[in-house]
Amino acid sequence: MKMNYFANKQKLLPGIYGGMGPLSHIKFEEHLLTACHQLNIQGDQNIPTWILFSGSSTPDRTKSIQQTGPISVSHLVYFTKQLESFGCDFVVIACNTAHHYFETIKKSLYIPIVSMIDETVKEITTNYKGVRKVGLMATNGTIESNLYQEAFAKIGVSVITPKIHDPIQKNIMRAIYDKDYGIKETGTRLDTKACKILLDGAYRLRHQGAEVIISGCTEISLAFERTNFDIPIIDPLKITAYKTIAVAMGIEKLPRTNLGEISSPNVLTQFSKIFRSDNSSHNLI
């Protein structure tokens, strides 16, 4: 008799690439569980299975983009292909700035990859209809990559961001990276100085006409969870987590790959076969 090792009604196995920064996938997994509750998935054994790879060794994405540090794209491709080799049916990268290399990563895979940028655009166009100006708080790398600017321009929505050399943006980068109070350093022990800096940045964008604000960095999302603000804060991690569960359970469709739309599970690898059936003749090599 074959045993199904997946959750009841689970259709696909997600692969999650986290560790950028160290808290990104921890917060992402919290959002995955929240999404399960939103979709009325109850009970431990009914929560879908996923595989998580914490690639904390991945070089800093902003420094890579600005060519002031090691290039990160080789790590991004390597770790996503590892998730593919483990039998995952699709991949999610829990980092905004890493999406600068999205097309390169996508071309290296046979399985689909979910775009955090695209899902955020869909969220705003679906649930915040009429919004014409979106504020973006993010790393220099995300801002300079024009990831959100180009995506929103396609639907006629403008994106307001601080200029890279603006004191506000320099302070935002310090709130993320500073060795004493930056959120990458303090982790869940959020420093009030970092939170105040980010709140000041949000007020600046609101005064410039932003109707909603995207927290385009995991560390910024952490700070805004503990801060009250008077216009909506859109969290791409939370949005992408919901998409991950919805796809895993067959509620929503996968994005297309370079090979076309894939709707059936990836059963090409030994790991996937072992996960999907109880067969002692299989061996992991």
TrEMBL record:
Origin: domain of life: Bacteria
InterPro entries given in the database record: Asp/Glu/hydantoin_racemase, Asp/Glu_race, Asp_race
Keyword Isomerase: yes
Molecular function terms from GO: amino-acid racemase activity
Keyword annotations of the record: Isomerase
Pfam family, any one: Asp_Glu_race
Family affiliation: Belongs to the aspartate/glutamate racemases family.
Name of protein: Aspartate racemase
Organism name: Candidatus Woesebacteria bacterium GW2011_GWB1_39_10
